[in-house]
Amino acid sequence: MIRFPNAKINLGLNVVERRTDGYHNLETVFYPIPLEDVLEISESGSLTFHQSGAAVAGSPDDNLVMKAYRLLKAEYPSLPPVQIHLHKHIPSGAGLGGGSSDAACMLASLRDKFSLPADDDRLEELASRLGADCAFFVRNRPVFATGIGNVFTPLPSLSLKGYTLVLVKPDIFVSTREAFALIRPHYPEHRLTEIISLPVSEWRSAGLSNDFEASVFAQHPTIGQIKDRLYGLGAQYASMSGSGSSLFALFGKGAQAPDEDTLRRLFPGAFCFVCELEY
Fold first, then answer.
1. Residue 119, SS3?
2. Are 110 and 159 in contact (CB under 8 A)?
3. Which burial class, exposed, middle or buried, applies to 47 when counting CB atoms under 10 A from its CB (0-12, 13-18, 19+)?
């Protein structure tokens, strides 16, 4: 069985309050994008894991795909061992949810291949044990996320179909600690769901933003400069995604967005991706 775990971007991200357990409550919109890894599983006499493509830090045993298998095995002991091949294309540490998507896709693939009695609600509950945003990728549709990023309200009317998405991820690692360094939790003046309902061309002036940018741009000015450059190239909206180092930009229907070769010349050493959104 071969499946293609996809990435996501955050349309706005507000850190609204600190919780008593040390985590933070936030408000954001998760939006799936067609930047994909490749996950293949096949029944085997023993559990094996092989990874190719972009490098991922840590041992294979700590990979979220392996954790997803062990979690499901604990819930359904009859689950047989499998051979796993994960080809990474989504860059790590980019705020794009690649590892979380791989894990959710692993849960769904095992459920479907071996006919396990777990509906999507059950998979979401299991996925949430692996990471705050893992559960989003079970249904993989635009949602307004609250809590620690694990409470979802579907946004069926939100569509960016026809817009060109540009992604630039410089060769810079941003740790979670760095991202939270200058965060001051607050509730924004305008609700995120209100801003998202406006035309994309109005998002910037309406105050759609990512609260992590203040911390990250202060410590890594290059990332902020890339965002400014994307606006200079004609983007209607540009932002950092999540707490990682990737920037995304949306170019309006019919606009001349830069292609990947142009982006690589403008941003040497960066991962670059361009596509027209179809949903």
1. coil
2. no
3. middle
CATH domain 164-276 topology: Alpha-Beta Plaits (3.30.70)
Q: Which helix (H) or strand (E) holds 223?
A: helix 221-232
Q: What is the pLDDT of residues 118-148, one digit of tens each?
A: 999 999 999 999 988 899 999 999 999 999 8
Judge: domain 2-154, CATH 3.20.20.70: no
Per DSSP, which regions of the chain are E strands? 2-3, 6-18, 24-36, 38-43, 48-53, 82-88, 143-146, 151-154, 164-169, 237-240, 247-251, 271-276
State the CB neighbour count (10 A cutoff) for residue 45: 8
The structure tokens 């062990």 sit at 70
Structure confidence by residue, pLDDT tens digits, 18-32: 888 878 899 999 999
- The letter for the amino acid at 70 is R
Task: Confirm whether pTM is higher than 0.70.
Answer: yes
Query: Which residues, other chains included, contact 154 with Cβ-Cβ below 8 Å and sequence gap of 6+?
Result: 141, 142, 143
Beta bridge partners of 128: none
- Name the residue ranges covered by the structural domains of the chain: 2-154, 164-276
Question: So which residues are the catalytic ones?
Answer: 8, 133
